[in-house]
Amino acid sequence: MLFRRRQPETRLQRVRSALWPRRSWRRSLRYMQKRVLRLRATPHAIAAGVAAGVFATFTPLIGFHFLLAFALAYCIAGNMAAAALGCLAGNPLTFPFIWASTYEVGRWVLRAEVPNGEAPPGLQAALAQFNISAIWEPYLKPMLVGSVPLGLGFGLVSYVLVRWGASSFQAARARRAQEKAAARPRPAMMTSIRQDAA
């Protein structure tokens, strides 16, 4: 294999790299920023894609975030790669905060009673058998309702920031390309033709 490691990663190293970046958070975030800004699309498409991914991350539909982000990005003319990158807003470090906030906002909107701190009866069996109806009312419904305003709010903020960043980045790149083109020496044959024509 061409790019195989000399020493394969252990299971513990793979878990660690999935939860914590190899280098640093700053470097990883900078890398993701560059990946988003360098996409070849309009600033609206990039920003709409990221916003769709961020919105999908706030829903409790784990396992369907990418599909939901792609569907939303398609509806609002967003970039699919940007939507996938926007889904990275949900990760093992942010999910506990996202789930707690969507649950609390949804419970407040629905004016739902707080469960008494115990799991509903038969929760383990319901999860093992994928019986969603057992956890719908006490947990999933408030989280789904709460995910809409929070997802829209964070999606809108990310849209504004990414659109501004993409517009600035693309304008600076176009300016640098023009400066490079202007600084290139012109071929001697073309200048002599122009002088003869004059």
TrEMBL record:
Residues 27-173 form the DUF2062 domain. Keywords: Membrane, Transmembrane, Transmembrane helix. InterPro entries: DUF2062 (IPR018639). Pfam families: DUF2062. The chain crosses the membrane at residues 66-89. PANTHER family: SLL0298 PROTEIN. This is Membrane protein. It comes from Aureimonas ureilytica.
